[in-house]
Amino acid sequence: AEGVAGVDLSGGAAPAAAPFTFTPAKKGETPAAAGSFGFPGGAPAGGAPAFSFSTGGAAAAPPGQFSFNFNNPAPAESDADADDDEDHDEDDDEDEGDGVEEFISSLPEPVQNAVRELGAYDDEIEELEKAFRAELRELERKYEAKYSPVFSKRAQVVTGAKKDFADGKKGDGAGVPDFWLRAMSNCSCLAANITEKDEVILKSLTNIESETLPESEGVGFRLTFTFAKNDFFSNEKLTKVYSMADAGDDPVLEKAEGTEINWSEGKNVTVKIKKKKQRNKNGKGTRVVTKTEPCESFFNFFSPPKIPGQDGEDVEELDEEEFEKRQMELESDYEMGVAFQERIVPHAVKWFTGEAEDDDDDDDYEYDDEELDEEDLDLDDEDELDEDPRQRSGGGGHHGHR
């Protein structure tokens, strides 16, 4: 009962049951060191992955990071088995609650009463925080409505539909060729996913829009890409929707969905076609077998990776390597989505001109004031220092998250 003042009671009241989550590794930290994919401290010694819960129903991620909610739907089973599983889940929830209750019960009775009162206050704060987030989303929608006419004029100038400008000067009707392609190419996380074949298609991109989802559709945002008529696909608009959990300051991705692209025959840049000659087993003649394989392309953005457990996937069948691959894909996909939402769409012209500063590469390194001399560098004659990565990507810009 002594030393109560030094006890961490940040949990407040007994935590509610939480969904499975996994948290991306910090920059410069290996997934094993980060305890990601639900492997605390790295992968388990063997057998099925050991998934962990976050306390309080939201993914526990450091500020600036995000997590992914995923469930592990069980296969069809008998009613008896289902009842057993349900009882087991309830037992797990009770065990978590019992741990907190056991601790509180170990305190002196007056302290117990105080802690329970504080827990009630914490519940009030959580409700107020939830209301605050709802009002903040409403404020975002209010200002998106104010931005909309300005963005509409921007789109008209880019496409050449608007030729009379505020300063009395005029355009020639051609607009600004390759406007969105160049803006995207100046943002490193987007440029890294654009191939030469993609560039041809992105020349026909006429507008990109971002909107906060209506409250009726949940928490998240929608990106809309509008294309001029082209030879590659019939879609005029492609959309990407990020659905998030209302989990406080740290975003928790629940689902990402993109438009299915209606590719023209032989124009799908997300796959490559391989032809191989195949001999007849009897040695009489050959035939050509055609296979399609996925390949790198920006347009894979509209076929986002699945969060483990979606569409009936059994999470326990995924090994650590598959989890790591999925995590990297999800992180990259979400980073691209946020880049469009917070950087490209609001300030596209600054990305087009290169005025915006893309400092993503610098985030991967820590600097100190110590100066290095030639002996510290210890370079051979044939060694060269890499040039600034931003010079390779053509400059660009970066505005922090709002």
UniProtKB/TrEMBL annotation:
Pfam families: NAP. It is found in: Nucleus. Residues 111-145 form a coiled coil. The keyword Ribonucleoprotein does not apply. It comes from the Eukaryota. The keyword Nucleotide-binding does not apply. Residues 78-100, 355-387 have a biased composition (Acidic residues). Keywords: Coiled coil, Nucleus. One of its GO terms (biological process) is nucleosome assembly. Residues 13-37, 46-68 have a biased composition (Low complexity). Residues 393-402 have a biased composition (Gly residues). This is Nucleosome assembly protein. The lineage of its organism: Eukaryota, Cryptophyceae, Cryptomonadales, Hemiselmidaceae, Hemiselmis.
